[in-house]
Amino acid sequence: MSIKDCRIIELPKIMDPRGNLTFIEGGVQVPFDIQRVYYLYDVPGGAERGGHAHKNLSQLLIAMSGSFDVLLDDGINKANIHLNRSYNGLYICPMIWREINNFSSGSVCMVLASHKYDEDDYYRNYSNFLDQATLIK
Ligand code: TYD
Predict the structure, then answer these.
(1) How far is the CA of 14 from the centre of ligand 1 (A)?
(2) Cα–Cα distance between 70 and 127 in angstroms, integer?
(3) Average pLDDT, whole number, for the chain?
(4) CA-40 nearest atom, ligand 1
(5) CA-CA-CA-CA dihedral for 17, 90, 67, 44, to nearest 10
(6) Residue 3 · residue 78 · CB < 8 Å
(7) Which residue's CA lies nearest to atom 21 of ligand 1?
(8) Sheet order of strands, 97-101 included
């Protein structure tokens, strides 16, 4: 898995003078069944989230409000993605180290995930992640 497998997915947007609407169906707009939703909010200025990789989990990150940056790292290549549209999702495949920072005031990061929470699915130590990521390349 490499950062080339990660991408921005443009979600459907129903434009309406009363306010726009975006919808997401598991396995349709996102390439996995959605087993879990969580969101980051009330993030204080300067804080950083993420700082880990997942062994098997696929995720879609959406800036529901405001903006933030996502650093992606597959052990060889890195990319920095700025998310600021609630109709764009960043698909992150397994085995990608990610760091999320530069949260704007009042921003909300919603995450759709392919599996329920499992601490055993995490690499929380960067050098352990790097060892495994380079081994499977
Ligand atoms: P973590 O995934 O490290 O947060 P982030 O990547 O956003 O910085 O999770 C932080 C804590 O929350 C950790 O103790 C595990 C817990 N947690 C759950 O219990 N369930 C969940 O679905 C998630 C994502 C985290």
Answers:
(1) 32
(2) 19
(3) 97
(4) 7
(5) 130
(6) yes
(7) 117
(8) 78-83, 68-73, 97-101, 49-54, 122-123
Closest alpha carbon to 2 in 104, 107, 91, 73: 73
Q: Bridge-partner residues for 70, per DSSP?
A: 81, 100
CB 83 within 8 A of CB 40: no
Q: What are phi and psi of 134, to 5 degrees?
A: -75, -30
Distances (CA, A) of 88 to 8, 58, 101: 6, 16, 18
* Tokens coding 105: 């005031």
Q: Is residue 41 within 6 Å of ligand 1 at its C-beta? A: no
DSSP class per residue in 51-71 = EEEESS--EEEEEEES-EEEE
What is the value of pTM for the model shown? 0.96
pLDDT (tens digit per residue) in 69-88: 999 999 999 999 999 999 99
Active site residue 115: no
Q: How far apart are CA 93 and CA 74, in angstroms?
A: 10
